[in-house]
Amino acid sequence: MLSYAILISCGLIGCALALNAWRLIIGPTTPDRIIAVDTMYINSIALIILLGLYQGSPSYYEGALLIALLGFVSTSAFCKYLLRGDIIE
Amino acid sequence: MSVFLEIVVSILLVLGSIVTLIGSIGLAKFPDYFTRLHAPTKASTVGVGCILIASMIFFSVELGHVNLKEALISIFLLITAPVAAHMLAKAGLHYKVNMKENTQNQHLAKKAYLHKSPDDE
Question: Where does the signal peptide begin and end (chain A) (predicted)?
Answer without folding.
Answer: none
